[in-house]
């Protein structure tokens, strides 16, 4: 299905204490990457409005936190039904503002709903624990909410990334403050409205728009106990440092430069599909996209398959647009520089034609650069576009040395038919997530999502089981009701 852009501009206000409030800090336009046309306006809150919003969140959290998880889950069940009912509408809106194809936008929301299903299972699975540790003495642990928590999210997954945390944080009894990307505020409106319709009490969910100013005010506010961030490494570091200096809990996920190790014994057909789809999916604008192909030995027939599939992509149908014109210019410049430095251009996205009627959009085609030098920009910098840089390697040791030398640590994949060689890559990759014959190794729930190195600052993961301790407090209770007088080292 083709993306349907909004007919009228969508006005995105701030959700403060259950009401949509026009921001007093200005109202910039939002443009679609598809055709450069205005599709919305985003209203920015004033400092006073941010203060009112966060105070209301703190007040609302008190009774939400005391509501039993089974009751909280009923509202989240309603939320799931509403999202499924409105799946296509939300996906069109999401695709219009971030440039994804309709199918990609829909898949992202479905992945978010999978996290919601995990959160719904907590009422039956996350039961705490209790044990008699010495005669008449029990130890118990209980999970408690943190209070108000905030999440700051990027443009490239306007629904999936927020949905990594919204259901889990709400199920655990926190009040949730969302600062969506300033480039993609439209989806936020729909997700927040779905929560209101589901019956979430006012103030438990807050949306505040804007950039650094809003983020700083949220981090600094004493009511905000924990901060989740997903975005570039540059901003992840800023947010992590600001929050932790205030003694707050921060989990900040950053950028990536993901490698695929291609071995000559790999199935050429399947690796061609896996590698091509990994670097072209979401027009390369995802933190799990393949960026560098470490081509070990003679893998030319595999690379031909990658080229064949990538060159068959139709822009606007199989591959979406880039978020901004300046991002397109940055990518064209990066390809020019790589070419000047001696790269062979196996597929040139600079020449790709925009879809008819969308000439003012931000389009670039899949690009494959061969003979990229180790340490060059194309080999080390996160370009965030549909560009695959091929680095030729004589053996697997050289490939792993290159993989290990990059500052990021989100994902690494290997394509091979050898179990032991795959296992070597799994063991030696300096990443949080590894794929074997999978181009985009995103773990599905309940397995947690998260990288290492410059791809993540803070402890734990943002989804799945490993996120629960981050988004809650674990209270430990030691109790003695027996009246016997025996004493031991615990008495
Ligand atoms: P970004 O860092 O520019 O923006 C992320 C968020 O931070 C947005 O809400 C933005 O408004 C806000 N922000 C921007 N500048 C700020 C500042 N100086 N201080 C405080 N907040 C600020 O990222 P983006 O361009 O929206 O998203 C793309 C990046 O996100 C890529 O680097 C990509 O790899 C990364 N990403 C990472 C993951 C992951 O799981 N590791 C997932 C998705 C995207």
What is this structure, in a nutshell?
This protein has helices spanning 47-66, 69-85, 87-98, 102-125, 160-171, 186-198, 212-220, 233-245, 268-280, 300-311, 325-340, 377-380, 396-405, 419-428, and strands spanning 10-12, 14-16, 19-21, 29-31, 38-42, 129-134, 137-145, 148-152, 175-179, 205-207, 224-230, 249-253, 258-262, 290-296, 344-347, 367-370, 387-393, 411-415, 433-436, 456-457, 472-480. It is α/β, with parallel strands linked by helices and 491 residues long. Bound molecules: nicotinamide-adenine-dinucleotide.
Average pLDDT, all residues: 96
CATH topology (fold) name of the largest domain: Aldehyde Dehydrogenase, Chain A, domain 1
Q: Which structural class fits the helix and strand makeup? A: alpha/beta
Q: Roughly how much helix do the residues carry, as a percent range?
A: 25-40%
Distance between the termini: 68 Å
- Quaternary structure annotation: single chain
Second-tier CATH architecture of the largest domain? 3-Layer(aba) Sandwich
Q: Outline the low-pLDDT stretches.
A: none
Task: Kindly report the name of the CATH homologous superfamily of the largest domain.
Answer: Aldehyde Dehydrogenase, Chain A, domain 1
Question: How many distinct folded domains?
Answer: 2
Q: Strand fraction band?
A: 15-25%
> Count of helical segments?
14
Rg estimate, integer Å: 24 Å
Bound molecules: nicotinamide-adenine-dinucleotide
For the biggest β-sheet, the strand order reads 15-16-17-14-13-18-19
Total beta strands: 21
Main sheet characteristics: 7 strands, mixed
Shape annotation: globular
CATH class of the largest domain: Alpha Beta
